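Example A, followed by Example B.
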Amino acid sequence: MHHLLKRQIDRLGLGVETAPDASLWKQFVERVNASYAQSDETRHLFERSMELSSREMQELYDRERSANEQLEERVRQRTADLEGAELAARSSEARFRTTFDNAPVGIMHTDVSDDRILYTNPKLSEMLGYTRDELLNMRTDDFLQPEAVGTDRPKYREQMLKGEMAVYSSERRYIRKDSSSLWVSRTVSVARDASGKSLYLSASSRTSPSACYRRTAAEWSMP
């Protein structure tokens, strides 16, 4: 016998083998009906709770899946952007290097603090007679006449580093590796990063026959 049914029979003082009178039978039926009703309500609440839990779990799963998909899409987009930027940077660097290395003028990048040569192009080596490795172990003063060392700096360096001057041009006499002289027209500018910090000085030099002629004529005219 089910324990619930036995509990109701015991509460009414009934026996299993004796028939109850009408009053007790009515009470018995009412209590059994109430037990079934309570059981149905309990089952309904349980099923409702399970339904809500399942729905909430599904909603949570859907939200997390959507968030993951959005994150994956952002990662894919960011990766594509980085790859595109890297490709553009490599392409830009390749164009710069091609232009720099094939320029018809001598170009050098120098340290802003001590004029140490950081980078040169082949044309400058051709003009001065030094190899690239030799130039990278030199300063700009090393191929100037001793009396010309430092004469140009006060005219442009501080102003240029402060942003008060964009470009400075002058005529300079370089001393080649074979000790011969080379007059050039030199243009200096400063390269900066995105924050405005000075990175290096860039100087381009081209041979200047007119300067050489003027200087030679002046020297010959001296008494």
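Example B, a separate protein, is given below in the same form.
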Amino acid sequence: MAGVPGDARAADRRRARGRRPAAVTARRFSTYAALATIAVAVALMLVGLFVGAASTTQRLLGIGLGTLLLFVGVAMLTPRLVPPLVRVLGWPGVKIGGTAGTLAQRNAARNPGRTAWTAQR
């Protein structure tokens, strides 16, 4: 019944063509946003480490928040870092593993977001 023009499922499929699911687009972050997050994190950690006028609580808070933001910034950047890392780190697997190594390298490079998500877990 999918070919029937009045079928609701066929109409939904026609409308959905070319659109990405919201979950996929929500995970993508701008490289600039990731780099800005990393810069703020480094600044917070440097302030926490080197500003002598701050109390111990303020210094530890700056270092802790900076560390947390650094983790978030790197996590935002990992989908962009995966393809070059896969090429470099997958090279020995291709040379040693032959076809299986090539398959593994291509699988990791095919969907960088999934590879980055798996590496974070």
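On Example B: The helical segments are 8-16, 22-26, 31-50, 56-97, 99-110, 112-120.
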